[in-house]
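Case study.
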Amino acid sequence: MSRIVFMNDRLVPEAEARVSVFDHGLLYGDGVFEGLRSYSGRVFRLDEHLDRLYASARAICLEIPLAKEVVAKAVNDTLAANKLSDGYVRLVVTRGAGSLGLDPNRTKNPQVIVIADTIALYPREHYEKGLRIITAATQRTQSAALSPRIKSLNYLNNIMAKLEGLQAGCVEALMLNHKGEVAECTGDNIFVVRGTKLLTPPPDAGILEGITRNAVIELAQAAGIDCREQTLVRHDLYTADECFLTGTAAEVIPVVEIDGRKIGAGVPGPITARLTKDFHALVRQ
Ligand code: PXG
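After joint prediction, the assembly is written out as follows.
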């Protein structure tokens, strides 16, 4: 099936949705992106995704040539054009085509691209039984090198860690920061339950502030669960009662084993189950 893609100012058939080989998004990973999801025809937290996209762009001095409202409409139009009510949206803004050489000032026409597709979900079994993950040797990039808060087209740091996970037979891998603290997984944020407390690393651990993470923190608060941002090390994960990951693609997914250590009882726990249920209710609200 041929998809319809939004490119800059209009919807075009997939075959016509092309970028230049001189685009710095391709040449240098110079650009930003977002991954969004729609449920029952409504994009979950569209405004927050757009705010993060524009913040990422601002951080790299990339001026998105369209107003937020125009991009919001493009997201909805692209979903509609592809007749998707439950779908995945990839929003990409590249630096645009330029001369060979890093200089972003020698580029023009940033490309604003919206792709809508069906979402490739993890198998159901992963949600029922929980994931087994490992800690990658690849550290999360230091903020002083490249802020993990920028969702840039340069994802090699995460891809290197993802490769380590896959080589160990795991679909996700944990990344530590340069201090050895828990940061996040390659495309998901991490939470643990210790006693009655829900804990997740703070933004300064070097993480992308996930929109699903924020939603789960709000749901925990609404459910009367004591949720805190706290620096965590691997020991905190190994000795936790429960662990789960959050992300647009994964939603809320339990983790039952890390580096060969069973987490809690080795099965998805009750707080994970409660927040999963609340999250599903929230996205369909
Ligand atoms: N950390 C990183 C490094 C991410 O890339 C998250 C956390 C979770 O953030 P959200 O806002 O989604 O709760 C992400 C998000 C994909 C894909 O296609 C990746 C993400 C989101 C959607 C799709 O691999 N990463």
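Observations recorded in class. The mean pLDDT is 97. Residues 35, 158, 184, 187-189, 208, 210-213, 246-249 surround PXG (CB under 6 Å). We will return to this complex in the next lecture.
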